[in-house]
Amino acid sequence: MADSTAENHTTDEHTPLTAEVSADVAPAVEEFMAEAAQQNADAKEAVDDAGPGDTPGPYISFDHVYKSFGDFVVLHDVSFFVNAGETLCILGRSGVGKSVSLQMLMGFLKPDKGRVLVAGEDITTFNEKKLQEIRRKVTMVFQNGALFDSITVGENVAFPLRERGDLAEDQIFQVVKGLLEMVGVAGMENLLPSDLSTGMKRSVAIARALASQPEAVLYDEPTTMVDPLMAQLLGDLIKRLKQQLHLTSIVVTHDMRFAKKLADRVVFLHEGTARFFGTMEEMEESQDPILQEFLALDSLVLPDQDVPPATSGMTPESGIRAIP
Ligand SMILES: Nc1ncnc2c1ncn2[C@@H]1O[C@H](COP(=O)(O)OP(=O)(O)OP(=O)(O)O)[C@@H](O)[C@H]1O
């Protein structure tokens, strides 16, 4: 395992994803990551070609989307997009349709009206078979991790690797070990999900998502119910995945610090509409009283506390973890 002293944990987006991966499995993980990065670069080119004229097509977009449950209107004429390799944060108070939006992007829910485009394709009328193809490209990290409870952490992460059918068992073992080290939960292969804290489960869920080499990852409230240090670590990881794997990400969050750190753009949902769509700087400069109120309330809820830098790897014994 790489040295994990405090001075070696710079945790910026340029720290190699494999910096904490043991020397014995690093080559396998590096090869796996290089494959993923190349695939994502190809995906970006594919959507770049899809736009009209010289305009690149977005990787994901909501195009005038409407959604109601009975008489209850959740989304009313909502539009936004995410370019390939970029990160969008979906912000808004409870119950405004953030999770409903993610479920539509995964094809679990259909819009009543409007179009949903994923991987540059209009998935609005896709049948289940075609949606499964899309779900190979776009994967979701659920709040609770959505791990299989009856199998070990290692088996959970190995699952998508086995599905590929082209990897030998020793390659699977190495990639699983390396991915767990990469997301800061080294040595937890043999534990059951029920042995893990919420933050650890989320890290394992990210490792499992990465094992499927997605082009995009959708995160539902990644910092809910985790402490500020864990939130910082997850944020660093998502940023490095963007920087080094060119992953496209959508992050649903209430956490403005997190959004500030990650977002190329934000969409703010309010009373069924996309009240704001643009950069975080533009949102902060907005004179819209609803946005100003949201930002003011957030600064009350989240005082500007300094989070100490990560200093050590999390071990099953300590229950404390850090990523590079
Ligand atoms: N399948 C469903 N059937 C009926 N109503 C639903 C369904 N899914 C979501 N809703 C309702 O749609 C609204 C938006 O839900 P959603 O989960 O997207 O909110 P959210 O913005 O993610 O909130 P939170 O931040 O609290 O998670 C809620 O009022 C919810 O009860």
UniProtKB/TrEMBL annotation:
Gene3D superfamilies: P-loop containing nucleotide triphosphate hydrolases
Region (Disordered): 1-21
Alphabetical list of Pfam families matching this protein: ABC_tran
Domain ABC transporter residue range list: 60-296
UniProt KW keywords: ATP-binding, Nucleotide-binding, Transport
Superkingdom, taxonomy of origin: Bacteria
PANTHER family per the UniProt record, alphabetical: INTERMEMBRANE PHOSPHOLIPID TRANSPORT SYSTEM ATP-BINDING PROTEIN MLAF, PROTEIN TRIGALACTOSYLDIACYLGLYCEROL 3, CHLOROPLASTIC
Full protein name: Phospholipid/cholesterol/gamma-HCH transport system ATP-binding protein
Species name: Granulicella pectinivorans
